[in-house]
Amino acid sequence: KKRIWFSRHGESQFNVQDRIGGDADLSPRGESYAQHLPSLVSKHIGDNYPLTVWTSTMKRTIQTARYLDYPKKEWKALEELDTGVCDGMTYDEIAEKYPEDYIQRDQDKFNYRYRGGESYRDLVLRLEPVIMELEQHERILIVAHQATIRCLYAYFMNLDHDQLPYARVPLHTLIELTPTAYHCEEKYYKVDI
Ligand code: G3H
Question: Given a cut of 90, is residue 16 above it in pLDDT?
Fold first, then answer.
């Protein structure tokens, strides 16, 4: 049976400060997740399983995948949602500096587009080529970002536009999807670090 795996990058130095965007390195915890990932993969996916690993072009996904000894492909399309002028800010700073935007986003998270950035709707379009290639390939592990994984997950799980931006994609967890004819089975393998 075809399966697909997703993992967010390990905790980054921006995650620790609650900042969004940026291109930060992994934190020590995130680095520890990167070191655990090969054994998580061999435990749940299998030893010598012929995986291909797709990452974004951002440091935190490349660093998370760096101990995985498989062929890799970097996709610009897998980069995190572009938060435009809010890049590098905390949600508290956004609420203070752009209070109306903060409310608008809360009211319609799928369609809200960051000033100078993207919406989840934009992201779904950007990810179309990734989904097309995913449909044609097997044995892919995608190491990407919260918002991009939400979009891919929603595609396979048939989530609607209201649910997509709230899909649960925890850190330090390998997500396994097994698409079947009418639904998709999901499993979460979490590492405690
Ligand atoms: O900015 C990127 C975050 O991963 C997305 O989180 O859409 O829930 O604010 P959020």
Answer: yes
Beta-ladder partners of 187:
176
The answer to whether 9 is a known ligand-binding residue is yes
Exposure class string for 84-103: b at 16+ Cβ within 10 A, else e: eebbebeeeebeeebeebbe
pLDDT-above-90 percentage for the chain: 95
Q: Which residues are designated catalytic?
A: 9, 80
Count other Cβ atoms within 10 Å, centred on residue 161: 14
* Statement: residue 180 has pLDDT above 80: yes
Distance 163 CA to ligand 1 centre (A): 14
Stated as kind and residue range, the H or E segment containing 177 is: strand 173-179
In tens, the pLDDT along 93-139 reads 999 999 999 999 999 999 999 999 999 999 999 999 999 999 999 99
Q: What is the phi/psi pair of residue 158, to 5°? A: 60, 40
Given the CA of residue 120, which atom of ligand 1 is nearest to it?
A: 7
**Is 63 touching ligand 1 by the criterion CB < 6 Å?**
no
pTM (two decimals): 0.96
DSSP secondary structure string, 73-125? EE-GGGS----GGGTT-BHHHHHHH-HHHHHHHHH-TTT---TTS--HHHHHH
Q: Which atom of ligand 1 is nearest to the CA of 80?
A: 2
d(CA 70, CA 72): 6
